[in-house]
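Hey,
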Amino acid sequence: MNRTIEKVFKGAPEHWVGDGFHVSNYFPGATDFEKRMSPFFLLDYQKPEEYAPTTRKRGVGAHPHRGFETVTIAYQGSVAHRDSAGNAGVIRPGEVQWMTAGGGVLHNEFHEETFAKAGGIMHMIQIWVNLPRRDKLTAPKYQGLTNQVIVETPAEGGKGLVRVIAGAFEDKKGPASTFTPAHMLDLRLRPGAKVRLPTPKDYNTALLVLQGKVKANGAKAATAGEFVLFKNDGDEVNVEAVDDSIALFLSGAPIEEPLVHYGPFVMNSVDEINEAIEDFNSGKFGDLKD
């Protein structure tokens, strides 16, 4: 049964994250629902934007996280990551950085040096994925998901690709290791492409259109920058591309636990937030020099 569309909306006015990412927030801030897309807690979208060449570091310097994971997807441009757990990596177009902050980590994110010197278009998304209580303080981890490991399968009739980052599509499983069940699919579709996306009825589910126009479950076409949120009343979403399109499909099992958010910390109680602040201030998240 097709899911009903609950709402279609665009993100909040753009704001700067550091000096390298000019993003629009879709949730929780723009829509004021912290649990409606659980386990996905936050989505910031940098639409395609030209950056002039520079020799200085451009991005976000060292900052802390605890209690969740950050997922950065590059569509254009290149992003470099380093963290206080000793992990480092660069993602290029089509690739993903999946960092588990867990019990606490410092990290930075900058335009990769060669890209910054040449300048060019940056187009990316960052998603925060909540962790369940049992895993809030797990050891930090980093997954660099390159184009070589992201699984691709043809859309119906060969009119495009479904790239499986996490979860599954048909018989293909994505490379990302997750703590709770979640599907994250990168859809690259040509005009007329049709994709059937089954997902359990209780999973919170949405589609963000990044390029072109797509119809979801036969409704009016959603255009670039529009976020389609589905009700939990069906077990599939059917997507049809009107023209050359890129879209991100998110669907995951909700984490039914208390949630308290303060800045870079996502925990289950105010006491845990206060503990995170104290641990950060006392240096327990490690050390990272930009």
